[in-house]
Design a protein that fits this description.
The chain has six helices and four strands. It has 174 residues and is α+β, with helices and mostly antiparallel strands. α1 packs antiparallel against α6 and α2 packs across α3. It starts with 5 loop residues before the first helix and ends in a 20-residue tail after the last helix.
Length: 174
């Protein structure tokens, strides 16, 4: 496990806001060398913290306006088989395990309510699924984010080993 410092958090913040930014541009913005940026990114990727660079899609703008969370109660001995079957349902975006009444939380998206209902019906037919509970998503007022957590975790840490904080007002030291 590696420690993330303020420089790592700032690199991740800038990549999150503009994933296609180049290493040279990041280095210039932060007042550090290209090698430092490249080394930090490789270290974050090697540690499994940075899993890659992917587009963030607005499904509604892409014509897929209906999303839901479907909780599944399972015969837990069938977990791997259920997850495998879920991976073959195109409407399934994400599956997480959880503690509580439901064992899995499945995020789905479709062009229609009937599409969500159809996906839920296919889930009930998976051997090992005992019960489903569907909750429709009305809106997402706070999308998935990690930057506030990273900023909080690194607030008392330094900016790299020997690199001073940049004088640029773009970097918030608080």
């Amino acid at each position: 496990m590696i420690t993330i410092d303020k420089l790592d958090a700032e690199l991740l913040k800038r990549l999150h806001s503009k994933a296609r930014v180049g290493v040279a541009e990041l280095a210039a913005q932060l007042g550090i060398s290209r090698n430092t940026v490249l080394g930090r990114l490789q270290r974050l990727e090697g540690a499994g913290i940075l899993k890659g660079f992917a587009p963030v899609m607005n499904l509604e703008a892409a014509g897929v306006p209906v999303q839901a969370f479907i909780g599944l109660e399972l015969d837990q001995r069938q977990l791997a088989k259920v997850v495998d079957a879920l991976s073959r349902i195109p409407e399934v975006l994400e599956v997480t395990t959880q503690a509580g009444r439901e064992d899995l939380m499945v995020r789905v998206a479709s062009t229609t309510l009937q599409g969500v209902q159809s996906a839920a019906a296919r889930m009930v037919d998976i051997p090992g699924v005992r019960h489903t509970n569907t909750t429709l998503t009305v809106s997402t007022p706070l999308p998935y984010r990690v930057q506030p957590l990273l900023d909080h975790l690194t607030k008392d840490l330094g900016w790299g080993r020997s690199t001073p904080l940049p004088a640029s007002p773009e970097v918030d030291e608080n």
